[in-house]
Amino acid sequence: MWRFVIRRALFGLLVLWLVATTVFLLFFAGPADSVARRLAGPRAPQEVVNQIRDTLGLDRPLTQQYLGFLNKLLHGDLGTSFISQTPVSTLIMASLPATLWLVAGAAALWLTAGVTGGVICATAPRSLRDRLITVTVLAGISLPTFVLGIFMIFLALSVFPWLGLAPGPYIPPLEDIRGFFQVMIMPWITLAVVQAAVYVRLTRGSMLDTLGEDYIRTARAKGAPEHRVTYRHGLRAALTPVVTQFGVDIGALLGGVVVTESVFGLQGLGQLMIRSVRDGDLPVIIGAAVLAAAFIVVANILVDIAYSFLDPRVRLT
Amino acid sequence: MNVLEVRDLGVRFGEVPAVRGLGFAVAGGEVLGVVGESGSGKSAAVLAVLGLLPPKAVVTGSVRLHGRELVGAPDKELTALRGKALAMVFQDPLAALTPVHRVGAQIAEAVRVHQDLSRRQAWARAVELLDLVGIAEPARAARAFPHEFSGGMRQRVMIAMAVANDPDVLICDEPTTALDVTVQAQVLEVLRDARRETGAAVVFVTHDLGVVAGIADRVLVMREGRAVESGPVEEVFARPRMPYTRELLAATPRLDREAAVLRGVPRPPVPVLRVENLVKEYRRGVRVVDRVSLDIRAGETLGLVGESGCGKTTLLMEILGLAAPRHGRVVVFGRDTARLGRRDRLALRRDLQIVFQDPMASLDPRMTVHDILAEPLRMHRLPLDRVPELLRLVGLAPEHAARYPQDFSGGQRQRIAIARALALEPRLLVLDEPVSALDVRIRAGVVELLAELKARLGLAYLFVAHDLALVRRIADRVAVMYLGRIAEIGPAERVFSAPRHPYTRALLAAVPLPDPVAERARPRVPLAGETPSPAGPLTGCRFRARCPVYPGLPETARSRCAGEEPELEGQDGAACHHASGGAR
User: Fold this and answer.
1) Cβ within 8 Å, pair B145-A313
2) Do B113 and A222 touch (CB under 8 A)?
């Protein structure tokens, strides 16, 4: 197992290196003046362009710039934002908690609802309740996130104002736990509704396959009650594709939940990224991209480890 | 006193009837063999008894357990009976055990569902049951997962689970069909013990008349959902009243009779395939095929037999790959595969074709029969007008070319697969279990076709099969493989009538005869254990650990078996230091 983790971690580092290099080349390849101009924006005066060229050392050979970039990256130094003149790591650390809490809370909701819904559907395929659940979750996924978000804000402010629910800004749970929930519940539900549909469908399909297996019949032949057959013999084997999807989703969402964060005014990674792209704030873009890649790499390693716990036939090699 | 009584049982899937008006009764300690071909409704009938059919199946009639009606009984009542009074052993023990739970836990579950025991007590009972079904080191084995067990051991676990609550009725649905013949003999022995221990009434469903002859007291022959004939096993086998039963019995090849009808005509001994000291390794040092030598002459059938894991499929794939082996030599039609260029290899493929085991899986469902047969012709830029002739050659009508494989029955599909293999007019046909997926009556027809084609076209066959009685009918020479090596090779008649290697003798003894009197008169000495892994350290004779001769040998002779690997001399003999000169 440890050999597996180490090998996968090394492979993950390779991926991160490739991402960093690609981003670097995307922005820094080319003549010094045109790079500086690109960074400064089309309307910036020539002095600013010159200043950028000199402070970043764009005159140096590309290999030298690249080595300097990698060296800083390895020391965790992601550079300084052009716009706010604060270190990128500080900016990211400030935005990370909102995204982390948003994804964690929503994931707990959509995983529970998705798997439960999928199992309920699979145990009575083509029944009324199967159709009802399927239609409901499809409606959820068909609704654009911002529409759902705006609708929820409307409900919170106009119909149930006594609940005290409010859109952003993010409040850390240690500071004010009540405020934290009042801010987070709506984004959680919004993100979960969007995600749950996939999990219901996935669990339903996988569970139907598993319930058709011979060993399910064996469990019934033993005289095991139906709920035991479903959960003990069926669900665990059916979870593998769900876990795969879950890992991919968590990894991708931690990189920034752009729309949900925007609608609810949460200052998360998604917002940070959007802002830095709009402002051409290069160090922040690079930092956020590498971080997002890191989340995906780690999530995938965790998924593979989870497989070996779900299914003893899987060996980590 | 009948424990289980079935009257006028009917099963329908939608509009399609699977079982019609079936009736039978079984008394405690009695074994009823239910025999039929695929689609005869035998499995649907026994699943209906347990109420385990899918919800869309409609069950009518009456099933009584100790006089208590089960058809239409509430689910709760049936759940309470299942696994306690009514237990079942299923066919494929790999698919029938939950892969994610330890075998001990699965047996303990069966115990705890019906008995008020603590976790620890149930586990102890599971270990006890594993011991009862003959699993070595039961305490350790209980902690294993199903995939860590061999097929035979998994089926023992299934039986342990079935007898856990001392059932009144034990239903076995093809319990030995997925197993090798020596393992089948062991599992049948365990089932006999289980019946004795529990005194249960046993319903034994199978397509294998040999197995029924050995284990059943009474037999029920089914066809198209109905009972065709039933009676005491000796009577049905000796004096079958119905033509269908007679047909089934006639189509079943018998190992104890000479049947040279399908042998080839003698031809000049031109070798078409020569394999010399072929070795195939997976990973370092694990030899799946180890120094195998054999040859096939023009117009000859070499039967290759051996149990699963003996390396016969790997051997086939090595030959068919036409690539240079790591060790040894493969010479096809006088040409060494190590010295072939890409173009030569393609040309040589014309002469060497294969027919696979499962025609359902080996024919592309999206291609018409015409396309399937024309594809090899196109590949080799040959005229396509041979297609109708090919269909006629295998006994199908040329009009069938426009249809798809799924429009045909299993036997017809295998004929299409044979026609495809013959499209390029090969000289050597590799047949990998060509009839084992077919019903016995269909099987006889395909085997006859193969014999006829061989005689007409002068083909040579490399015929891989686990059905020894069948090999006896069709093979001119036989090679018996064990753990990557050839244990015995020789003319078919000699090998079957006077086997020299103890393994060959054990293999032949394990094949059940479709004759209750002869089968019960034979001494039952199942070969112990199962084929070990080729990854283990192999010194001396690799059959030694299971050999029935070895323990009785004097010390000096034993040390020779342990220290020196016996070699096969020539093309007629046995790789054994103590090969017997004759009688079984």
Assistant:
1) yes
2) yes
